[in-house]
Amino acid sequence: MIICGIDASINGSSCTKFMLDQNDKIIKSEFLAFTTVKKDAKLHKNGIIFHYKKIQFKNALDKYIWMEEKIINFCENVDLIAIENYAFSGNNLAMIGEFTGGIKRKLYDNNIPFTLFPIGTIKKYFTGKGNSKKDAMIASYIKRKDIYKIEFSDEILAKTKSFINDVVDSYAIASLLYNNFLENDNLLEDFIYNSKGI
After folding, report:
1. What is the dihedral sign for C-alpha 43, 45, 48, 54?
2. Between vectors from CA 29 to CA 102 and to CA 16, what angle results, nearest 5°?
3. Residue 27 located in a structural domain
């Protein structure tokens, strides 16, 4: 079983997936992220960081398609996915909706079950507060003692305006999904979008 959390963002998406053994224990974790900072784009032992320049794309749609393809390839063998739902009061809602809609459509076409988690629910699960800021999410990540946690250097974790924000968010989503999976034997039936249709 493989589960995945997706933090979909028009500039810095990330995915974290957990591989489970036959006893539903996490045995491995991997991530996918994007950055515009070239020196941050190096192969990590647990994941891939794609570097891109905004000027390499003809337009926003061209960039969305490129990012969607990377995300869908990363999710190819995943069994269950959770995606962070929209921040309806946030900026760029229309563009985020277009981008995330493309990801949802491809997951649906590939019969990969997915559901949506509200942002406040993710933050409350991960930090104890539903309105936590980015630095609180990173602080909670650092404090976690998960044996499957993706390790980053202190230098990377200090870069609060880097891809690490997105990785921490996708990790929190995957962790919440894993927690729900352990607590609910019929989790797939509760999914909003699954192979049985809507």
Report:
1. negative
2. 25
3. yes
CATH code where residue 124 lies: 3.30.420.10
Does this model's pTM top 0.85?
yes
pLDDT, one tens digit per residue, over 87-126 is: 766 667 788 888 999 999 999 898 888 989 999 999 999 9
Long-range contacts of 30-34 (CB under 8 A, 24+ apart): 30/150, 31/150, 31/167, 31/170, 31/171, 32/70, 32/71, 32/74, 33/163, 33/166, 33/167, 34/67, 34/70, 34/163, 34/166
Identify whether the C-beta of residue 181 lies closer than 8 Å to the C-beta of residue 24.
Answer: yes
Give 160's contacts (C-beta < 8 A, 6+ positions apart): 134, 135, 138
Question: Which segments within 71-123 are labelled E, that is strand?
Answer: 80-84, 114-117
Q: Which amino acid is at 158?
A: A
Domain count, the chain: 1
Q: Are 107 and 193 in contact (CB under 8 A)?
A: yes
The yes-or-no verdict on residue 173 having pLDDT over 70 is yes
The mean pLDDT value for 28-44 works out to: 82
- Gap between the Cα atoms of 85 and 117, Å rounded: 5
Indicate whether 197 belongs to any domain.
no
User: Which range of residues forms the domain containing residue 135?
Assistant: 2-190
Beta carbons of 97 and 103 less than 8 angstroms apart: no
CA distance 123 to 131: 7
pLDDT for 88? 65
